[in-house]
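Review form for a predicted model. The reviewer records the input and the model, then writes brief findings.
Reviewer: anonymous (R2)
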Amino acid sequence: MEKFGIKVRALREEKGISREEFCGDETELSVRQLARIESNQSIPSLSKAQFIANQLGVTLGTMTDGDSLELPRRYEELKYLLIRTPTYGDKVRLGRKG
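Model under review:
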C-alpha cells in the first residue's frame, strides 16, 4: 500500500489533472487529503481509494497491484480486545447508562 500514493500522483499528473480538478467539490475527497495520500502520510479508506481509482479511470486492483489492503496492526489489536470485553454484545449491560 506504500506505493499507492506514488501511483495516484503519477497517474494524476500523467493525465494533466490538478489536485483541485481531481477533487472537484471535495465532497468525496479534499485537496488536503489527496496531498497527504500522495505523499504517503495517510492511507485512504476503501471508499476513498475506490473514488481515487474511479477518478483516474482505473481499477482499484490496478492501483494496489493486487496487494490486499491491510488494516493497521493496532486496529486489529483493539478490535480483538473490544470483542473480548465481557460487555460486548451484552444487551442488558449495554442498555444501562453508567
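Findings: The helical segments are 4-14, 19-23, 31-38, 46-56, 60-64, 73-84, 91-95.
Further findings: The mean pLDDT is 85.
Recommendation: see findings above.
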